[in-house]
Amino acid sequence: MDKAKRADKIATGVLYVVSGLIVCILAFLLLYILIRGLPHVSLDFLTSPSKAYQTGGGIGIQLFNSIFLLFVTMLISFPISLGAGIYLSEYARDNWVTGIIRTSIEILSSLPSVVVGLFGFLVFVIQFGYGFSILSGALALTLFNLPLLTRNIEESLRAIHYTQREAGLALGLSRWETVTKIVVPDASPGILTGIILSSGRIFGEAAALIYTAGQSAPALDFSNWNPLSVSSPISIFRQAETLAVHIWKINTEGTMPDGDSVSAGASAVLIIAVLLFNFGARAIGKRLHKKMTSA
């Protein structure tokens, strides 16, 4: 008995040491990026366009492209993921077809982002003729985002107790009405948390967008709101270098005299955005869960 207790204490201590080491490494990396980059971040840096072969450039267009591309991607991927999650949770039978679907989702979630980017380049950029554009990038990121979001929605729906479904059916609601009016609203805290977490993952993606959304950030005319014009900020047919791609481009091409400071500042902004997505997901999920339980 004493040996078992001693072994348990040793194993627990080892786990605590490993966990603490991982947290320290992560904290060091985050602090290094923030300390190195935050001094270069200002309102002018966040709003001014980037410059090549001269100093003083910012990340205004790249930051806008990242946000707009995230919006378009979620607009495409969320309805598909919601439908797939509802089907797998509420309607799919446990047979070989469902097994193939789940296996396909697992395989798709394990693909490297560069493979998704190359697939998007061959299919959306070349085969469909969309070229390097926000649309091509959003479709590629949809493939990248679907497994995570679908699995999150399915698990959120499955977490709702079966008595909720029985209560809806007992009140005379159809199965579809029970799902849409009772199950999905009750699962909304978990679904919203998954949306925000997947948004953070999309916001920081670079490899898939290099081959689909392009590596240039043309000047935008914010007085032109024609979605068919390539100079319009809301056009999905224009090239859109995102913040993560911009960081990669700065460090590989070396066309900026102050590339180190711009890269450091852009990295700090990217880290802060991803942290806000993650902490925001936890905070919003907890608040919604409290409201649902108190109601």
From TrEMBL:
<keyword id="KW-1003">Cell membrane</keyword>
<feature type="transmembrane region" description="Helical">
    <location>
        <begin position="12"/>
        <end position="35"/>
    </location>
</feature>
<dbReference type="Pfam" id="PF00528">
    <property type="entry name" value="BPD_transp_1"/>
</dbReference>
<keyword id="KW-0812">Transmembrane</keyword>
<dbReference type="GO" id="GO:0035435">
    <property type="term" value="P:phosphate ion transmembrane transport"/>
</dbReference>
<feature type="transmembrane region" description="Helical">
    <location>
        <begin position="67"/>
        <end position="88"/>
    </location>
</feature>
<feature type="transmembrane region" description="Helical">
    <location>
        <begin position="100"/>
        <end position="124"/>
    </location>
</feature>
<keyword id="KW-1133">Transmembrane helix</keyword>
<dbReference type="InterPro" id="IPR035906">
    <property type="entry name" value="MetI-like_sf"/>
</dbReference>
<dbReference type="InterPro" id="IPR005672">
    <property type="entry name" value="Phosphate_PstA"/>
</dbReference>
<comment type="similarity">
    <text>Belongs to the binding-protein-dependent transport system permease family. CysTW subfamily.</text>
</comment>
<feature type="domain" description="ABC transmembrane type-1">
    <location>
        <begin position="63"/>
        <end position="281"/>
    </location>
</feature>
<protein>
    <recommendedName>
        <fullName>Phosphate transport system permease protein PstA</fullName>
    </recommendedName>
</protein>
<dbReference type="InterPro" id="IPR000515">
    <property type="entry name" value="MetI-like"/>
</dbReference>
<feature type="transmembrane region" description="Helical">
    <location>
        <begin position="262"/>
        <end position="281"/>
    </location>
</feature>
<keyword id="KW-0472">Membrane</keyword>
<keyword id="KW-0813">Transport</keyword>
<dbReference type="GO" id="GO:0005886">
    <property type="term" value="C:plasma membrane"/>
</dbReference>
<dbReference type="GO" id="GO:0005315">
    <property type="term" value="F:phosphate transmembrane transporter activity"/>
</dbReference>
